[in-house]
Structure formats: structure tokens, C-alpha cells
Design goal:
three-stranded antiparallel β-sheet; 7 helices; globular
Length: about 190
């Protein structure tokens, strides 16, 4: 199965002024495209990965019998593809509130504001490159961050909301001001 770069579900400029068009273009067409290209190359060279669902492969990542080099390439690029595919879908120029998710967030974190504060803290305090996540972990909502392109699927969790805190996601507009990017991102998250 050849993995494909998904189309961005809106124009590059649709998230302005919060996320600029040039960042979206580079992020999607260069960064995400490179993850897909490298993922397809490692899949092509490893029969163990061919014809298999990417989520399921990530869920059993630790048991894959790839060489260390191929395992690292698969981890970074398979995770990068999954993470970014979700990222594009949960953002948009208009809210599409998920009422069920809102109720689960309120029940788990006490309020939407408490959730945002805890999630923003996880994103702002991720050292180096990575992601902040809201995940479903065996029916329970949890917030944590992962390094690089590690996927929550690798921990047996299902990602619901993911925020890319790699510098390529915000540096053109926000430079080294990751907290300002995080604050702005809440305006383009569709779900809450």
C-alpha cells in the first residue's frame, strides 16, 4: 500500500491571521510530503510493512523486526504522516464543535478552560521538537506530549487532538515564541 499525502481540506490562507499561509504551504507541501516519501521508501524495502494498516503497525511498533535504521525511519516518518494527517483535519477556518468531546473534556478536566491550560502547558513545555496530545487511553482522556514524530498509537492510545510544536509549524510567524503560537492555535482548532 502506497501512502499518499492528503489534500489540505482548506486553502493555505484559511487559518490566517493565526497561522500564516506560507507556513501552511511549507508545512504541508514540504514537511508532510517528505514524511510520506520516506515512509513509502521504508515500506517498499520491508515486506513486514507492506499492505498493512499504518495505525496497526504503529500500535505494534516495538515488535517490528526491522533493522534499527529502518525502524527509526519508519518511526519518524510513519508517525509524521499519521500525526500531520490528524493535525490538518482538526483545524479549520470555522468551528465544528464536537459536543460529545466537550462533555468528556468537562467531565475529565473540570472545564474547557482547565483542559486548555493543561494542554497548553504540555505543548509549551515539550523540550525540543514534538507534539502535545489529547488521547483516548482505554476510554479515559489523557494529556501528554511526545518527542519528535512519536505517535500515541505507539503507547496503545488513540489521538484525538494533536498540536505540532516543531519549530517548522510556527517559526515564520512566531519565531521563538511558542506560547504565542499555542494561544493562536486555539482559534483554529475546530472541535472545541
Amino acid at each position: 500500500m502506497t501512502h499518499q499525502l492528503p489534500d489540505l481540506p482548506y486553502d493555505f490562507s484559511a487559518l490566517e491571521p493565526h497561522i500564516d499561509a506560507r507556513t501552511m504551504e511549507i508545512h504541508h507541501d514540504k514537511h508532510h510530503a517528505a514524511y510520506v516519501t520516506k515512509l513509502n521508501a521504508v515500506v517498499e524495502n520491508n515486506a513486514e510493512l507492506q499492505g498493512k494498516d499504518l495505525v496497526e503497525l504503529m500500535r505494534r511498533f516495538d515488535s517490528l523486526s526491522l533493522s534499527e535504521e529502518d525502524k527509526t525511519t519508519f518511526r519518524h516518518n510513519g508517525g509524521g504522516h499519521l500525526n500531520h494527517s490528524l493535525f490538518w483535519e482538526i483545524m479549520g477556518p470555522a468551528k465544528e464543535i464536537d459536543e460529545e468531546l466537550m462533555e468528556r473534556i468537562k467531565s475529565t478536566f473540570g472545564s474547557v478552560d482547565s483542559f486548555k491550560e493543561e494542554f497548553s502547558h504540555a505543548a509549551a513545555n515539550r523540550f525540543g521538537s514534538g507534539w502535545a496530545w489529547l488521547v483516548d487511553s482505554k476510554g479515559e482522556l489523557k494529556i501528554y506530549s511526545t518527542a519528535n514524530q512519536d505517535s500515541p498509537y505507539m503507547q496503545g492510545d488513540t489521538p484525538i487532538i494533536g498540536l505540532d510544536v516543531w519549530e517548522h509549524a510556527y517559526y515564520l510567524k512566531y519565531q521563538n515564541q511558542r506560547p504565542a503560537y499555542i494561544d493562536a492555535w486555539w482559534n483554529v482548532l475546530k472541535l472545541i
